[in-house]
From TrEMBL:
Protein name: beta-fructofuranosidase
EC number: 3.2.1.26
SUPFAM superfamilies: Arabinanase/levansucrase/invertase
A GO MF label: beta-fructofuranosidase activity
Organism: Microbacterium laevaniformans
Length: 333
């Protein structure tokens, strides 16, 4: 697994340059003592690997901005793609505080010629706005949710799409989480579009860290949400990472059909297709131990496939780490 002895590691995403796998991850110092405090101290770290098991930390990708900028509190989860111009684009969440102390999230970007040295683009690129998306003025929540951008190329060659963790301005508070959507012709300019899902009585208050892929010919959306942030109808399922079948990578997405891919011990499930054999793999971070305490650290790859129409982890047991071994190592499974 990948972990750091001096810092908590949680949300993450990948890039593959054809020779090396790149892992971008959120981390914050354990000197904070309270793991819940990590969110407001998050930076984006970077590690590289040839085999998806042994990782070597390299220079950090980005850190929070100067006072007054849209990302002056913390830099949160995103995704990384290569544009037609040869540059790599790292889309991320910028977090800042409103005057009343509530958290506001917006989407930013940094670019790199080599995935190693990143330059922020003046931002933000996108933020929540009506009539489609909830803002601080609308809600029952402590934050203005507009985060975790997942960017991918249009399957028909029509530019790029971005999925965003967002909420609708109407519907039950813990069911109004929606799949925010934006489109770009060139990864530089973005057009905000209506969400690709709707609030639901069997929905979620937040669909965190979304990813959409076509796994062995079947489109599927992944997101994460814990029971305390979902509608009561979901309480018994105790999911961490959820999967939603879809007709295409642009939906339609029926959130009512979501089913747990992992329990609450694993969060932020990510899919990655291994380069050498085409095998789809699932990763996650260790969220809660048997006592409900935060753990942290990213799992080794877990084989995944379709069973009776559902995406399923093929490992029967996923054991949490016994200790924090540092940046390198493997997870027994």
């Amino acid at each position: 697994m990948f972990d750091l002895s001096s810092s908590w590691v949680w949300d993450y995403w990948f890039a593959d340059d054809g020779e090396t796998y790149h892992l971008f991850f959120l981390y914050a110092s354990r000197a904070l003592h309270d793991p819940d405090a990590r969110h407001y101290r998050a930076s984006v770290g970077h590690a590289v690997s040839d085999d998806l098991i042994t990782w070597t930390p390299v220079a950090d990708a980005i850190v929070r901005g100067e006072a007054g900028s849209f990302d002056d509190l913390a830099t949160w989860t995103g995704s990384t793609v290569r544009g037609g111009d040869g540059l790599w684009y790292l889309f991320y969440t910028g977090s800042s505080l409103a005057p009343d102390g509530q958290n506001v999230q917006r989407i930013g970007c940094a670019t790199s010629p080599d995935l190693m040295v990143w330059t922020k683009v003046p931002g933000p690129l996108l933020s929540a706005s009506g009539p489609w998306y909830e803002t601080l003025a609308d809600g029952d929540w402590h934050d203005e949710a507009f985060r975790d951008p997942w960017v991918f190329a249009d399957p028909d060659g029509d530019g790029w799409h971005m999925l965003v963790t967002a909420r609708a301005p109407e519907g039950p508070a813990f069911g109004r989480g929606v799949i925010g959507h934006a489109w770009s012709p060139d990864l530089k300019t973005w057009e905000l579009r209506p969400p690709l899902s709707a609030p639901s009585e069997r929905g979620f208050g937040q669909l965190e860290v979304m990813q959409v892929e076509v796994v062995d010919g079947r489109p599927v959306l992944l997101f994460s949400c814990l029971a305390e942030h979902a509608m009561p109808a979901r309480a018994a399922e105790r999911g961490g990472t959820w999967a939603v079948p879809a007709a295409s990578v642009l939906g339609p997405f029926e959130v009512e059909e979501a089913y747990p891919l992992t329990d609450a011990s694993l969060y932020v499930g990510r899919l990655l297709r291994r380069r050498d054999d085409g095998q789809w793999l699932l990763f996650a971070f260790h969220n809660l131990d048997e006592h409900g305490a935060f753990v942290g650290g990213i799992t080794d790859p877990l084989p995944i496939g379709w069973v009776d129409g559902r995406l399923t982890v093929r490992e029967s047991t996923i054991r949490p780490p016994a200790a924090h071994p540092g940046g390198l190592g493997t997870l027994e499974s």
